[in-house]
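Every protein is a chain of amino acids, and every chain bends into a shape of its own. The protein below has been through that process, and both of its lines are reproduced in full.
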Amino acid sequence: MGLQSTTPLTVDQLLNALAAVGRGHIADPDQRPDGPTEQDIPELLGALLGLAETEVATVVDVKQEPPVGLHGLQEGWQHTSADRDVHRAVLINRLNRTAFDVPVLLADVDLDDDEAPEPPGVAGASASVMAAASLVEAQDHLDNGRRDYAHLALDSAEGSLAQALITLHLMRIQIRAGRLKE
């Protein structure tokens, strides 16, 4: 489910947006002597997204009942497009990115070391998010009559959920082992 932007953001627009919120971006002069280029758009978008996500975390409290600020956030986000397919594609993309962000941002291991064990809670959280993305994707395929693709997405969700359950079990074992040592 690929999206095409009808008005893609430019490097200058992203730099201006970051500067407008007080987070000017400076490219490494050795690598980019003429400043950021189109190759830098993902990094600039990431900087803007990171800033927005951090701000969201400070104004939206999902632990409150009802969640404080969540309704306004959802309304603002939904006004960017009225197309339900766009909403699904963005949510699937966000979930997939989150699944990759969890181990990168939360695991205290060397990511270049394939032998380094990932903490089970981090691996389980990542797998759970992947399962959510696969389930949304499966529903999209089902809604659009693509049963074979729906089955593949369900297989992926099932595998991710199995991995999440295994890591949950491993965490329980670690907790019990820690209690026995006390």
Observations:
- The chain has a mean pLDDT of 88.
- Residues 147-181 form the longest helix (35 residues).
- Helices lie at 11-20, 41-59, 70-78, 84-106, 120-143, 147-181.
